[in-house]
Amino acid sequence: MRMRLSRDNKGFTLIEIMIVIAIIAVLMAIALPNMMRAREASQKRACLSNLREINQAKEQYAMECRKQEGDEVSWNDIVPGYLKTQPACPLGSAYGLQIIGTYPTCANPQHVMQ
Fold first, then answer.
1. What is d(CA 91, CA 71) in angstroms, rounded to the nearest whole number?
2. For residue 6, is pLDDT > 90?
């Protein structure tokens, strides 16, 4: 006697689908926080890179224009002569140039140049 497959045996059962969804949910719960941390870290690295670039432009401006420590500097002094454009923090925070002899700052307190 030959056994015939009925139409009811085709496809996935509800339990199988629920198991697959549970596995995907567990994988997402593990992967999502890591992806968020990686994204935040890359944004911080980009911001610190911008701060270093701004600091180098300030130092070059100060040397070429014979500025002393403590002198004011503005964006008009270093853009476009020493920087092509005014950099922007990836998170949208504003950069502060500060005076000659100090590091530029980002409005985001986690982005600090040392």
1. 29
2. no
Coil, strand or helix at 98: coil
Amino acid at 58: K
Mean pLDDT of 86-94: 86
* Nearest one of 112, 107, 75 to 91, comparing CA atoms: 107
Mind listing the pLDDT tens digit for each residue in 38-76? 888 898 899 999 999 999 998 888 888 888 888 888 888
Cis, peptide link before residue 80, omega less than 30° from 0 = yes
3-state class percentages of the chain: helix first, strand second, coil last, to nearest 5 = 50, 5, 45
Note the pTM of the prediction, 2 decimals: 0.67
What distances in angstroms separate CA 38 from CA 17, 29, 31, 109, one per listed residue?
31, 15, 11, 18
Q: How far apart are CA 66 and CA 72, in angstroms?
A: 12
